[in-house]
Amino acid sequence: MAQVCDICGKGPQYGNNVSHAHNVTRRRWNVNLQPVRAVVNGAAKRVRACTSCIKSGKVVKP
């Protein structure tokens, strides 16, 4: 399942693990998604929203 917020579209970011010996491997930072019930077009619907959208009030709960 895609790690993408249904509200803002934020997805995972990519970067490197860098060890003390400077060995570099790829890694990713996933978005903190939570399943919440939100009002979408006047009806309650279950969406996967990131915590920054929930905290900022972009998600209206029924």
Describe the structure.
With 62 residues, the protein is mainly β. The protein has one domain. Helix content is 10%, strand content 45%. It contains one helix and four strands; from the N terminus they run ββββα. The strands form two sheets. It has a two-stranded antiparallel ribbon. Strands 3-4 form a two-stranded antiparallel sheet. Strand 1 and strand 2 form a beta hairpin. It is elongated. The model has no long low-confidence stretch (mean pLDDT 95).
Q: Which key features would you list for this structure?
A:
62 residues; mainly beta; two-stranded antiparallel sheet; two-stranded antiparallel ribbon; 1 helix; 4 strands
Brief overview:
The chain is 10% helix and 45% strand. The mean pLDDT is 95.
- Main pleated sheet: 2 strands, antiparallel
**Mean pLDDT across residues:** 95
Name the structural class: mainly beta
Helix tally? Answer: 1
Rg measurement, Å: 16 Å
| Subunit organisation of the chains | single chain
- Termini Cα gap: 25 Å
- From the spread of the alpha carbons, the general shape counts as elongated
As residue ranges, the low-confidence spans are none
- Counting structural domains, the number is 1
Q: Give the proportion of residues in helices.
A: under 10%
Beta strand count: 4
Which strand order does the major sheet show?
A: 1-2
Order of helices and strands: EEEEH
- Beta fraction of the residues? over 45%
